[in-house]
Amino acid sequence: MDIFRYIQDIKVHLKLTFDEVDGWFRKDKKTLNHQPSNGGWTIQQILEHIYLTNFYLLILIEKGSKKAMKNSLNLDLESEMENYSFNKENFDRVGEHGAFEWIRPEHMEPKGEMSLDEIRSLITQQYFQCLQYLEVMKNGEGLLYKTTMTVNELGKINVYEYIYFLSLHAQRHITQMKKNESEMIKN
Questions:
Q1: Overall domain count for the chain
Q2: Considering only CA atoms, which of 24, 40, 35, 33 is closest in space to residue 119?
Q3: Which of 10, 116, 118, 181 is most exposed, with the fewest beta carbons within 10 Å of its own?
Q4: What is the pLDDT of residue 89?
């Protein structure tokens, strides 16, 4: 596997996703606060949820990154890179809103206690955190540590896959925000 291409692909996905998320912060208050007819979250609540989910995923990514770097001192990175293949199909559904049932923990539900500017600033910082982890693990080290991901039965995933998952999760909610905006325009 070309690990450098793989890391670059994750960086591109992060950039496109985070840029699109950032665009939602420029919407007017009516759009941001439209309550969808299905009783779901407003766009502002979705943005807060993206931040909260990123926050908790980044805790796992940080731990995983440290363990992967430690493992790089003892494990055969070349062998790991030769034997690794990314199963993109397993992950793609994560980015599709409504593709499967997703029960999120209560601590990832928006509370409405943060300002839009605060959420935007924190999400921007989270983007840079992801890039920093990719830079630290720039030679393939992220393959050397796996953590279980129960969402969509992904199983044990490496640190790069966790970062990609974070980006896909935001992408999933971009679709949800588009649906909210579309419903508001129709009404």
A1: 1
A2: 24
A3: 118
A4: 81
* DSSP annotation of 112: S
Which residue intervals of the chain are DSSP H helices?
3-24, 29-32, 43-71, 77-83, 88-92, 116-136, 159-186
Give me the pLDDT at residue 27, please. 97
Which residues have CB under 8 Å from 163's CB, separation 6+?
Answer: 10, 14, 61, 130, 133, 134, 142
Domain extent, residue 151, equals: 3-186
Q: Whole-angstrom Cα distance, residue 20 to residue 143?
A: 28
Helix (H/G/I), strand (E/B), else coil: 146 = strand
Distance CA 27, CA 173 (A): 16
Are the C-beta atoms of residues 13 and 131 closer than 8 Å to each other?
no
**Res 24 pLDDT > 90:** yes
State residue 29 phi and psi, 5-degree precision: -60, -35
Overall pTM > 0.90: yes
Selection from 60, 16, 46, 83 nearest residue 151 by Cα: 60
